Amino acid sequence: MLPAVSPAEYVFTSFTETSERDMYIWGSSNATSWDLIKGPAYTPATGLLRDPSIMLKDGTYYVAHTTGWTGRTFALITSTDLLSWTPFATIEITNTTIQRTWAPEIWKDPKTKKVHIIVSLGTNNPDFTTNLYTATNDALTEWEGPVVMEGIPSNYIDTVLVYKDGVYHAFTKGVPNTEHAVADNVEGPYTLVQTGDFAGWGEMEGPTVVRLADGRYRIFGDRYKESRYIYSDSWDLYEWTAPQDVPQLSGVVRHGTVIRVDSEEYDDDES
């Protein structure tokens, strides 16, 4: 079931170069040219709103977001029309050694039909690990975790998942490049299969991957040191086209997530 208001085939949530507290919503018919749907669309009462990650489930949009540079929480907000947003939940990490909770990525698993949040948790050093939370009820009000995603190296952040042909593909930000790991199970163990600047993306962080209507995969990423936002395409998640800038977004947006609104509930490849 799609929401009452569905203004675009693709939707992108982001924070911006000028604000770490405001979420902006962008729409597109082709995932190439983007128009602003609303901005700011939501500003939390306290704390930050960085790295907003969007998911559509049963007619409701859910966004998970970073609440601060330091701390042991991340937050969820909801909307049915992309215009009005309501706080939904704040998830607290109980491990008191954790001092940084970054880039929660909400994602529906096509294989298991479960909803996960992938989040980078760091100590004071900082020493980050990639962790998985899993919703234990359909209302997304109860979660279990964190579970360390084995095989993703220490101090890799901004991990996103894609499921294709029975394999989980993780795109995860190392130092300094976004690299590619695979696993048979969502928790891992993951094995890095493409490292360094293997696709020519440069020092790109905050990757997000969407499956286009024609079956291609498109990765977007934040080249923040150059005030650039780029994309690159692939049919198999291994070979990628040369990155291109997104003119309307470069120098404006920062780390966020793109989804295809009119796709099925679990819109990754289930084959």
Description of the molecule:
The protein is mainly beta. It has one domain (10-260): Tachylectin-2, Chain A (5 Propeller). The chain has strands spanning 10-16, 19-28, 35-42, 50-57, 60-66, 73-79, 86-92, 100-108, 115-122, 128-135, 143-148, 157-164, 167-173, 178-183, 191-194, 205-211, 217-223, 228-234, 244-245, 253-260. GO terms for molecular function: hydrolase activity, hydrolyzing O-glycosyl compounds. This is Arabinanase/levansucrase/invertase. InterPro entries: Glyco_hydro_43, Glyco_hydro_beta-prop_sf. Keywords: Glycosidase, Hydrolase.
CATH architecture: 5 Propeller
| Name of the CATH superfamily | Glycosyl hydrolase domain, family 43
Distance between the termini: 22 Å
Which strand order spans the largest sheet, edge to edge or round the barrel? 3-2-1-20
Family: Belongs to the glycosyl hydrolase 43 family.
Protein name: Arabinanase/levansucrase/invertase
Organism: Morchella conica CCBAS932
Keywords: Glycosidase, Hydrolase
